[in-house]
Write a structure and sequence with these properties.
By secondary structure, this protein is mainly beta. Helix content is about 5%, strand content about 55%.
Length: about 575
């Protein structure tokens, strides 16, 4: 066969002996390749090798794979002398693994058979004047340990899944230096207004989770919470448009799950980031350490914002004759300052393969204050001009923390997992304002009216949860779990008005709210094809709610900030 000439050139083992077994063109000496070549090519240089003794002997055989018993196509067969390693003749096998060497002199020789990926085999053979058949010769695969290969794949910035849209924030370099509010503005289906209020598909009834868990950071205000979390710490944002039975029956508009980054690098590493702007500035830092089975992660961030504002309003009423009468004139200006911080501390430990323990603490603090002065000129329906100026000062303070611990048991079977979670969340915030009203356009006159309010709100929440996922195939997954939530919420809202700041029971209240929820769920999802998947599930919840509403306490604001026993209380 003429096909094995290029393969012999590639292997480089028996180039000359193979040529010796190939019939040369007319006029070419036997045992040497032709010096002619196709136009535009370079003829190979003749090799000076010893010629094999000529005779009437013939050597045949078949080369097979020792494991599969299939022919080893185009394996190299070299004929060596009894001593020495210089080939004196050779050929290659055909596509059936067969080979034949002809015109060999009688005597003792060695036959060497080799091919890429197999262990070279050498056999001693005695050739006679007739045909010597070696029958089948088996080659054993050569086991070779290769170096480690790391395959890295890049996720798309936006991924669409059957029940959610995933925005991989860490893949978007434009998020650097921003906050969570800036990240959410880039997430499909999510709208964030200039004040940071979040809407999903046009509704504000949205459930926000952090690392698949509720958090006290977002309990009081989602808008304020989004300003506290730096964008550099966000790995991805999941918009769960069709929540399964696994999720609580809250957030009818959908669920937004913010996944924070987790460090898996060995050794010590960290980062620092700063950003400044005309409306806000922020900074963040992280420090992580991991050695063997133990890892520590920590991060902290701070931010400040400054928002001067001014408004002018003119309101008119249309008369029956088509003319307009101005009814109200308002001019106002003010300034808002605020800031806060967000911090995380985590410990994870892998005591054994498939076992993981984590303990995490994260907390936030937020403050803002503002003053606003507004001139009002009421022109209708009063007969005389009614002009007054209101000066309002307001303050807002909140702090919260989440303490959680979890145990996760994975298995050799992919996607099979059992986890247990315990979490305690605390949020406390105070909202106060003070209003003074003066006659005319400035504050030069005596105070006409005063108003003061204090609102103290607390939210305590304890969660116990267990989940189990069991795959039946690569596309079929069963998920079950149970959860208990204990909530304790209270709000103490008091208003003092008139010039003397008298307690106003009609506008004050003390509200206590308890909610206990016990639930269980089960879902089964499977794929019917590459483009069609199904998920069915059921969830059972038992909720017990108890609330009490009563008039607020008659204490002065100064007493409320110190002790509740310094002033008499209302009967």
């Amino acid at each position: 066969m003429k096909r094995y000439l290029p393969i012999l050139v590639t292997t480089g083992l028996l180039t000359a002996p193979a040529w010796a077994q190939t019939t040369p063109p007319a006029g070419t000496p036997a045992g040497r390749p032709s010096q002619s070549s196709a136009p535009g090519t370079t003829a190979p240089k003749p090799l000076d090798i010893p010629a094999a003794p000529r005779g009437t002997g013939r050597l045949t055989g078949t080369v097979l794979d020792a494991t599969t018993k299939k022919p080893v196509e185009f394996a190299t067969v070299a004929l060596l002398p009894a001593t020495g390693n210089q080939p004196i003749d050779g050929t290659v096998c055909d596509d059936k693994g067969r080979f034949a060497l002809k015109s060999l002199a009688s005597g003792s020789y060695r036959v060497q058979i080799s091919f890429v990926g197999y262990v070279t085999r050498t056999e001693t053979v005695t050739i006679t004047d007739g045909t010597t058949d070696l029958s089948t010769l088996q080659l054993t695969s050569a086991a070779q340990k290769l170096g480690e290969v790391t395959v890295t794949g890049e996720r798309d910035v936006v991924e669409t899944k059957p029940d959610r849209i995933v925005y991989n924030a860490e893949k978007d370099i434009t998020n650097s230096g921003g906050t969570a509010a800036d990240v959410l503005r880039k997430v499909p289906l999510v709208n964030v207004d200039p004040d940071g209020n979040v809407e999903l598909r046009g509704t504000s009834n949205v459930r926000v989770l952090i690392n698949n868990k509720p958090s006290g950071i977002v309990a009081s205000s989602v808008a304020d919470a989004m300003k506290q979390i730096p964008a550099d710490q966000i790995k991805s944002v999941e918009v769960i448009t069709t929540p399964s039975a696994k999720y609580d029956a809250e957030g009818t508009g959908g669920i937004i799950n913010i996944i924070l980054k987790k460090n898996n690098l060995q050794g010590t590493n960290g980062s620092i980031g700063l950003a400044g702007g005309t409306r806000s500035s922020n900074g963040n830092a992280s420090l992580n350490y991991r050695k063997g089975k133990i890892g520590l992660t920590s991060s902290a961030s701070g931010f400040a914002f400054y928002s001067p504002n001014r408004n002018d309003l003119r309101r008119s009423l249309k008369n029956p004759d088509g003319t307009e009468t101005q009814a109200l004139e308002q001019d106002g200006d003010g300034n808002t300052l605020g800031g806060g911080g967000f911090g995380r501390l985590g410990l994870d430990y892998d005591p054994a393969q498939y076992h993981n323990l984590t303990i995490g603490l994260q907390g936030s603090m937020f403050r803002n204050s503002g003053d606003y002065q507004q001139f009002n000129n009421v022109l209708f329906p009063v007969t005389a001009a009614n002009q007054f100026t209101r000066d309002t000062d307001r303050k807002f303070r909140t702090q919260s923390y989440d303490l959680s611990g979890s145990y996760t048991r994975t298995f050799e079977q992919k996607r099979r997992e059992w986890s247990v979670l315990a979490q305690h969340t605390r949020n406390r915030n105070e909202q106060d304002y003070e209003l003074n009203q003066y006659p005319g356009r400035n504050e030069a006159g005596a105070v006409q009216y005063r108003e003061q309010s204090d609102n103290l709100a607390r939210n305590l929440e304890t969660t116990l949860q267990t989940d189990y996922a069991h795959p039946f195939s690569e596309t079929a997954l069963l998920e079950t779990g149970a959860k208990a939530i204990l909530r304790r919420v209270s709000s103490d809202y008091d208003v003092y008005d008139q010039v003397a700041l008298n307690f106003n029971p009609a506008r004050s209240n003390l509200f206590n709210y308890n909610q206990d929820v016990v639930s269980a769920y089960g879902t089964y999802g499977f794929s019917a094809s590459k483009k069609l998947s199904f998920k069915v599930g059921a969830r059972v919840e038992n909720t017990r709610v108890r609330g009490t509403l009563s008039p607020g306490r008659m204490t002065t604001p100064a007493c409320r900030r110190t002790t509740s026993t310094c002033c008499p209380t209302r009967a």
